[in-house]
Amino acid sequence: MTALSGGHIIAGESVATVGQGFFAVNPVSGAKLQPAFCEGSAAEVERAAALAEQDFPTFMQVDKSQRAALLDTIAAELLAVKDALIARAELETALPPARLAGELTRTVNQLKMFARFIETGEHLQPQIVTAMPERQPQPRPDLRMTQVPLGPVAVFGASNFPLAFSVAGGDTAAALAAGCPVIVKGHPAHPGTSELAAQAIASAVRKCALPEGIFALLQGSSHQLGAALVSHPAISAVTFTGSQAAGRELFDLAAARAEPIPLFAEMGSVNPIFMLPQVLQVDAERLAQQFAESVCLGVGQFCTKPGLLFAVQGAELDDFVARLRENFTRLPAGTMLHAGIKQNFTAGLERFLSCPDVSPVSDLRPAPAGNCEVFPTLLQTTAAAFLAQPLLADELFGPAALLVVCDSSAQMQQVAQALKGQLSATVHAAATEEADCRSLFAILQRKAGRLLLNSFPTGVEVCQAMFHGGPYPAATDSRFTSVGHESIRRFLRPVCFQGLPTALLPEELR
Ligand code: NAP
């Protein structure tokens, strides 16, 4: 089944609603894409949430091998509709087919990774402390701790990864692996891709003979739908990837509920890069090229795009800036994901350029002809101007970065101290610059969830040691990652069993 109905997917069925619909828009041509998609309302939230709540007790009891089989089957069902998924995602996002094929592989591998992880039982981190009835002055009881799923989870699909961070992406995979039903609020920029992925999940749920209320996709292009989902009493946790404004608004809504729930928002960051002087002396050409490519990868629409570059003034920086100018001017225009993102990007650039002491490094080219097209841009300012104007530390989501020229390495450390929370922070240094490097990392460790040396932050490996998160405003809870095995922790909570006989204990505690 690869036809699009334009409906929501609830309990394995396409559900249409009457009233206003919305369309996906081809970012290249600006043309509406058929079919019209239903606008979800509180009624669909109520139905999906009630089913998720109803089927949660069954799903949480399901054996780990059955849950692993579900994840493997979702992976297989996605691969079965690979061509349709990639073709629709290309139409809706303008991302090239090769990138989308890579993203689908990543999506499938994430599902399989969680399947293998839960089979080991390691995610439950069982702790067994046996009784010591003779202990003085107090006997010790038998205490055993494991992890249980939180309950139904609402997932907000991200616009910039229509497969790997959307309907069947890492959040859904981790929540299902934990034993939580999932209700996805699809991103309105790629509803067709969302529906195809949801059909694949619904088909896998059916093939695995699991209760169909454990998965739903709700479509919509209004804030009310997302707000109703976050507010529904059956929802136990929410994941979100997107803008800081939306993430914060939804976080506040989750906290203001009669029963507050965790809302794990990943809201992006500027991923600062610090280039120390001696590394520029020896490697300016390669670094200029790789920096420009990292900024422009995926038309700059990565939450790990480096948006700030700090360097110390001097002859080696002058040479490096000339090479950066060449690289940024050489790179072609790219098509952004949707008109709203392009509008945010161009408005952000204008805001930066209207600030005192901010100037373009690369040539400012006339607006490109294509509908959602933008040119890569590099801006420059001084550390003093950067410190005086907090808006220059904001994310410019798109192919642009700001070079901040510092007077000295001491001033570089001062700007590092002033930074807000980040997903990543990077230092480029020669072997002879270890002392400065150490001082910077000591500061940056308090700022970022991932620290890199002589590398670039775009490209996030999915594995046990990955941490994709960071202090606010990069994320709403700096203790949790949204990528890798450990991302399952967002959907589990510890329970201690005291004095229970073996027969009443969960298997992993017996
Ligand atoms: P967004 O505006 O944050 O929207 C993300 C999701 O949240 C959408 O489903 C949106 O749907 C919903 N939403 C937004 N505001 C809401 C609110 N107040 N209440 C309830 N739901 C709300 O992200 P976007 O559309 O992907 O892109 C807009 C900007 O976000 C970009 O220009 C960029 O700055 C940033 N962004 C950052 C990242 C990152 O990884 N850091 C990724 C993508 C985007 P509705 O519109 O239907 O309500």
Task: Give a quick summary of the entry.
With 510 residues, the chain is an alpha/beta fold.
The total of helices stands at: 14
Which strands sit side by side, in order, in the main sheet? 2-1-9-8-7-10-11
Provide the gyration radius in Å: 24 Å
Bound molecules: NADP nicotinamide-adenine-dinucleotide phosphate
Distance between the termini: 44 Å
Write the layout of secondary structure elements.
Blueprint: E1 8-10, E2 13-15, E3 21-25, E4 32-38, H1 42-61, H2 64-80, H3 82-93, H4 97-120, E5 127-129, E6 143-149, E7 153-156, H5 170-178, E8 182-185, H6 191-207, E9 215-218, H7 223-231, E10 237-241, H8 244-256, E11 263-266, E12 273-275, H9 277-296, E13 308-312, H10 315-330, E14 334-335, H11 339-353, E15 359-360, E16 373-374, E17 377-382, H12 383-388, E18 400-406, H13 409-418, E19 422-428, H14 434-444, E20 448-453, E21 492-498
Parallel strand pairs: 7-8, 7-10, 8-9, 10-11, 12-13, 12-19, 13-18, 17-18, 19-20
Antiparallel strand pairs: 1-2, 1-9, 3-4, 5-6, 6-21, 14-16, 15-17
The structure holds NADP nicotinamide-adenine-dinucleotide phosphate.
NADP nicotinamide-adenine-dinucleotide phosphate binds next to helix 7, helix 8 and helix 11.
